[in-house]
Design a protein that fits this description.
18 helices; 22 strands; binds calcium ion; alpha/beta; single chain; binds alpha-D-glucopyranose
């Protein structure tokens, strides 16, 4: 049976600090900005903040390249600001989960600056160094996630270092026990400060095979996955981390594990496997690709249902799901899975929220999702700030592999920058995010879509999220009920039930922009409506659902 824990019952809100709230007019969101908006988050009702990295960083990848794990990025403020944020959050009953980026450091981290100096430096073995095949050729054909080779030549010692991301993000060598100990000590230092958990960046990549052969070519480079993802010692290292650090504190952990299957998730996040509490799976956000991850297509509803339902049923009672539509690496939920045309934006955003928050698992809300923020209308590649989008354009398009006409719609639809435009707080200049010039442009729809308007309107997307969160607090069935998919072949409707003891819920979500007839199952005729995104009533045998309608019915308790 599933054990009851606080993190299973929590709703988590992700903050990408650079784009959340700027307190000093330099155009960059910061920690004081976050503190100033805690009452907004409290009002929404969330329990936990996941804070994307705030550590010292040269910002090649917006803080995912860290050069000091125990200091705060200059642009974001100081350690005093952080302590103040933590205390202010705790005062409001909000916990803070930190991003833990330990697959790699910045090349400006002191360990790496030492490591590259000489082959006998005491930090040499903190990173992964190899001889080239010959002076001009890297050790193998692997490509990095951000384009180009995964190896960078370093003149000082005439060798190459591995970087699965940018060349300013060298991969740490987890096989070195000293590296593991440094990381565990650093984690304990944050835990002793009183933080409430870790979101672990690309944690499935920390263990690499010793042999590093060429990978199967996809595009220009070889694929490193079979050698670097879910590698030979990943579970061993996580168990060691759990034993030495995690188990000593009342904290929660979520692993970012791209390529994870339900089988592997049962090991990473099993009830009794002593590794992590839950993982982020990627199947529902990676099954729509056209050119690698780049696409302008929507995932077919039957595929989406199949994936999410498999995760719901396979993990039941053995591991725990995390639930998300978007984050700082994904386009905006309403633009991608819903419908951001003006007449459908609001109703489809509420529908998506219903569909996700009624499933089993811990729901994650990405900043601005609760306002129905949309993708940005990028006009040309100059608009991008993100290293991934900039490099992808160069690699796929500028070198003539695919035409601009074919690639551009895919890039603008999937670019991570869609999620990174500033949070729209009000309808004043720069959406109230900054009094200066923002580091990335504000979405021009901010006069229509902003927090001030949303909080003032009881029928808004914001208030709908608030209601979903409070329903979760009052109804254990939403957290612990067993999931079952109905109408699995419908291309328009996502329908499922949740069952706990003698209680049962029916969740109906239309993903269609047309009206759809829906036959209410016998046992739910006359049931209570828990929440709905329309004024419809559900006491007849067949209801005509509006485009993107969603509702939840609660069967009256059966006699004991
Ligand atoms: C993760 C982060 C992403 C980052 C990458 C490298 O996928 O979510 O933003 O670019 O790891 O750290
Ligand atoms: Ca600032």
């Amino acid at each position: 049976m599933t054990k009851k824990t606080w993190w299973k019952e929590a709703v988590i809100y992700q903050i990408y600090p650079r784009s959340f709230m700027d307190s000093n007019g330099d155009g960059i969101g910061d920690i004081k900005g976050i503190t100033s908006r805690l009452d907004y988050l409290k009002y929404l009702g969330i329990d936990v903040i996941w804070l994307s990295p705030v550590y010292k960083s040269p910002n090649d990848d917006n803080g995912y390249d860290i050069n000091d794990y125990q200091a705060i990025m200059d642009e974001f403020g100081t350690m005093e600001d952080f302590d103040e944020l933590l205390a202010a959050a705790h005062e409001r009953g909000i916990r803070i989960v930190m991003d833990l980026v330990v697959n790699h450091t910045s090349d400006e981290h002191k360990w790496f600056m030492e490591s590259r100096k000489s082959k006998i430096n005491e930090y040499r073995d903190y990173y992964i160094w190899r001889e080239g095949k010959d002076p001009q050729t890297p050790p193998n054909n692997w490509g990095s996630c951000f384009g180009g080779s995964a190896w960078q030549y370093d003149q000082a010692t005439d060798m190459y270092y591995l970087h699965l991301f940018s060349k300013k993000q060298p991969d740490l060598n987890w096989d070195n026990p000293k590296v593991r100990q440094e990381i565990f000590d650093m984690m304990a230092w944050w835990c002793d400060k009183g933080i409430d958990g870790f979101r672990m960046d690309v944690i499935s990549m920390i263990s690499k095979t010793k042999e590093m052969p060429d990978g199967e070519i996809s595009g220009l480079y070889g694929n490193f996955e079979p050698y670097c993802v879910h590698g030979p010692n990943v579970h061993k290292y996580l168990q060691e981390m759990n034993e030495k650090v995690l188990s000593k504190y009342d904290i929660m952990t979520v692993g970012e594990t791209s390529g994870v299957t339900t089988e592997l998730a049962k090991q990473y996040a099993g009830e009794d496997t002593h590794e992590l509490n839950m993982v982020f799976q990627f199947e529902h956000v990676e099954s729509d690709g056209k050119y690698g991850k780049w696409t302008d297509r929507k995932i077919p509803l039957t595929t989406l249902k199949k994936i999410l339902s498999r995760w719901q049923t396979e993990l039941y009672n053995t591991a725990w799901n995390s639930l998300y539509w978007n984050n700082h690496d994904q386009p905006r939920a309403v633009s991608r899975f819903g419908d951001d045309r003006p007449e459908y934006r609001k109703i489809s955003a509420k529908m998506l929220a219903t569909c996700l928050h009624m499933m089993q698992g811990t729901p994650y809300i990405y900043q601005g999702e609760e306002l129905g923020m949309t993708n940005y209308p990028f006009k040309d590649p100059e608009d991008f700030r993100d290293i991934e989008s900039i490099q992808a354009y160069k690699e796929w398009c500028a070198n003539g592999r695919i035409s601009h006409e074919d690639f551009w719609p895919c890039l603008r639809f999937k670019s991570r920058d869609n999620a990174r435009t500033p949070v729209q707080w009000d309808d004043t200049e720069q959406a109230g995010f900054t009094s200066g010039t923002p580091w990335i442009a504000v979405n021009p729809n901010y006069r229509e879509i902003n927090a001030k308007k949303e909080t003032a309107d009881p029928d808004s997307i914001f208030h709908y999220y608030k209601k979903l969160i409070s329903l979760r607090k009052q109804n254990p069935i939403i957290v612990y009920g067993k999931y079952e998919l109905l109408f699995k072949d419908s291309e328009d409707l996502f329908v499922y039930t949740r069952t706990l003891e003698n209680k049962k819920l029916l969740v109906v979500c239309s993903f269609s922009d047309r009206e759809t007839a829906f036959p209410i199952p016998e046992e739910f005729i006359g049931a209570n409506c828990m929440i709905s995104n329309t004024e419809n009533t559900y006491d007849t045998q067949t209801v005509t659902l509006r485009p993107y309608e969603a509702f939840v019915l609660q069967k009256p308790d059966s006699p004991q």
